Amino acid sequence: MLKIENLHARVEGKEILKGLSLTVNAGEVHAIMGPNGAGKSTLGNVLSGRDGYEVTAGTVTYNGIDLLALAPEARAAAGVFLAFQYPVEIPGVNNTYFLRAAFNAQRKGRGEKELDSMQFLKLVREKLKIMQISDELLHRAVNEGFSGGEKKRNEIFQMAVLEPQLAILDETDSGLDIDALKQVAQGVNTLRSPDRAFLMITHYQRLLDYVVPDFVHVLADGRIVESGDKSLALKLEEHGYAGIAASHPADP
Ligand code: ADP
Ligand code: MG
Ligand code: MG
């Protein structure tokens, strides 16, 4: 589904990704771990096509097409979803309204018919039931006054409605208490499917106790320096990143 080869990217003229390669197949959950400043969020932003991230070398192929050639909206329409590390608040904009706009933009991009508010409400109700989420968040403005846990739960709900093929979650676990973490994990697990892949960017091991990844990768200094199964995450928790990063110095 996703093949990243030798990706180099710059932010504000500074090279952050320095030859990153990664292959993700449908149905797989990949955890990306690594020290602060390694380039984890940059990877998510480059994949979603966020402004200000300049790719200087390498390729990203998604379902056989050149992902980097697509505008951000086209990537979303093609099923790429990025949940932000710091979700934005949009005061005064109703959450359901916002979600329908995103949903319909995606449908339009695929050449599909948009849903009217009644049809969308029906879909939202089904998703709430599947995800076991209360409808309380829907009536509020986007993320306004949401607690950390509510924001993350809302992201998982957005993901459930948008039904991405490739879901990128950037530190969806950060700042969550254990109950909220379990809820987020349960949401991700509910959405796992043979035709959907997840890139879970996380700083800590603990989310991976609840969402068991197929692969764990260590991103250090702009590259994947080590890959393994879930036992790699436990090893990192025990020994930290220092040893791993030091044994794989970046190319001069
Ligand atoms: P991580 O998510 O692994 O903690 P980031 O991808 O956020 O790392 O950041 C990697 C490096 O890129 C850091 O040194 C950070 O300061 C820098 N960086 C990221 N985004 C920006 C930006 N928008 N402007 C300037 N520097 C940035
Ligand atoms: Mg960080
Ligand atoms: Mg980050």
Question: Any overview of this molecule?
Answer:
The protein has helices at residues 40-48, 72-77, 95-109, 117-131, 148-162, 178-191, 230-239, 242-246, and strands spanning 2-11, 14-24, 29-33, 53-62, 65-66, 80-83, 90-94, 141-142, 166-170, 197-201, 215-220, 223-228. The chain is of the alpha/beta class. It has one domain (2-246): P-loop containing nucleotide triphosphate hydrolases (Rossmann fold), CATH 3.40.50. The strands form three sheets. It has a six-stranded mixed β-sheet, with helices on both faces. Strands 2-1-4-5 form a four-stranded antiparallel β-sheet. A hairpin with a 2-residue loop joins strand 11 (215-220) and strand 12 (223-228). The chain is globular and about 55 Å long. The mean pLDDT is 89. Residues 40-41, 85, 170-171 line the site of one magnesium ion (MG). Residues 36, 41 line the site of one magnesium ion (MG).
Topology, please?
Layout: E1 2-11, E2 14-24, E3 29-33, H1 40-48, E4 53-62, E5 65-66, H2 72-77, E6 80-83, E7 90-94, H3 95-109, H4 117-131, E8 141-142, H5 148-162, E9 166-170, H6 178-191, E10 197-201, E11 215-220, E12 223-228, H7 230-239, H8 242-246
Parallel strand pairs: 3-10, 3-11, 6-9, 9-10
Antiparallel strand pairs: 1-2, 1-4, 4-5, 7-8, 11-12
Helix pairs in contact: 5-6
This protein binds adenosine-5'-diphosphate and magnesium ion (2 copies).
Residues 11-12, 16, 34, 36-42, 52 line the site of adenosine-5'-diphosphate.
